[in-house]
Specification:
It is a single chain. The chain is about 25% helix and about 20% strand. The protein has six helices and eight strands. Helix 6 links the parallel strand 7 and strand 8. The two termini are about 30 Å apart. The structure holds pyrazine-2-carboxylic acid and zinc ion. Pyrazine-2-carboxylic acid (VGL) binds next to helix 5. Pyrazine-2-carboxylic acid binds next to helix 5.
Length: about 230
């Protein structure tokens, strides 16, 4: 406290400003921004709206110039998908069921391939985005993660793509924090990437405490939790 006061007396704001700048993270050429499922289905007017989902769009757009590499994902389900409550008699959205690969939350029909609902949000401005990974397109298997389907066997190919391109660090943003963002971030850790989740560039579904649980799990696995203001653009 004494040292800070002394610095303040001598340098005032002129001292504080460069220190703050030095504390920011400058994404390198071997970093990639992953923009998860920022689609019409997950914002107001969509089939599975996430509260405040559209708010991530300007936050992501503002950071995009800091990244040489951007990957976008799209939830891309068949009609009658195994993750849809309507596929089963007597099941309601947000209930859980058991599928061959384990427990599955059942959702309203959402993000059906080729529909406007499944399109990327039209406000996204990501001119340097290089790859769109579509996931959840196998009718009997869901895929929250951008890396691996829910059977924990079928890869999307994203890890191979990133590794082949020398990417070491990923910054994960988008929807929803507690499902596709969290699963993507944790799989990225498992696959050996350095992983940041940019919290204010995400919004959550928060089903029965799933948001707090997701942060706990992510942090236990070494995912770093930061804010968009921590990125030097
Ligand atoms: C998602 C539920 C169902 C997500 C996708 O993008 O987080 N959540 N499908
Ligand atoms: Zn889905």
């Amino acid at each position: 406290i004494k040292a800070a006061a002394a610095l303040g007396a001598v340098g005032g704001l002129g001292v504080a400003a460069p220190l703050m700048a030095a504390g920011k993270i400058k994404p390198k050429a071997n970093s990639a921004l992953i923009v998860v499922d920022v689609q019409n289905c997950f914002v107001d007017g969509g089939t599975l709206p996430v509260k405040g989902g559209a708010d991530v769009v300007p936050v992501i757009n503002a950071m995009a110039p800091a990244f040489e590499n951007i990957v976008v994902t799209q939830d891309w389900h068949t009609e009658g998908h195994a993750s849809f409550a309507s596929t089963y008699g007597g099941k309601k959205p947000f209930e859980t069921t058991k599928l061959s690969y384990g427990s599955q939350v059942l959702w309203p029909d959402h993000c059906v391939q080729g529909t406007d609902d499944a399109a990327l949000h039209s406000g996204l401005k990501l001119p340097t985005a290089q790859l769109i990974i579509r996931k959840g397109f196998h009718k009997s298997v869901d895929s929250y993660s951008a890396f691996e389907e829910a059977d924990r066997k079928t890869t999307t190919g994203l890890a191979g793509y990133l590794k082949a391109r020398g990417i070491k660090t990923v910054f994960v943003t988008g929807l929803a924090t507690d499902f596709c963002v969290a699963w993507t971030a944790m799989d990225a850790r498992k696959l050996g990437f350095e992983v940041y989740v940019i919290e204010d560039a995400t919004r959550a579904i928060d089903l029965n405490g799933s948001l707090a649980a997701a942060w706990k799990q992510m942090q236990a696995q070494g995912v770093k939790r930061i804010q968009s203001a921590d990125i030097a653009v």
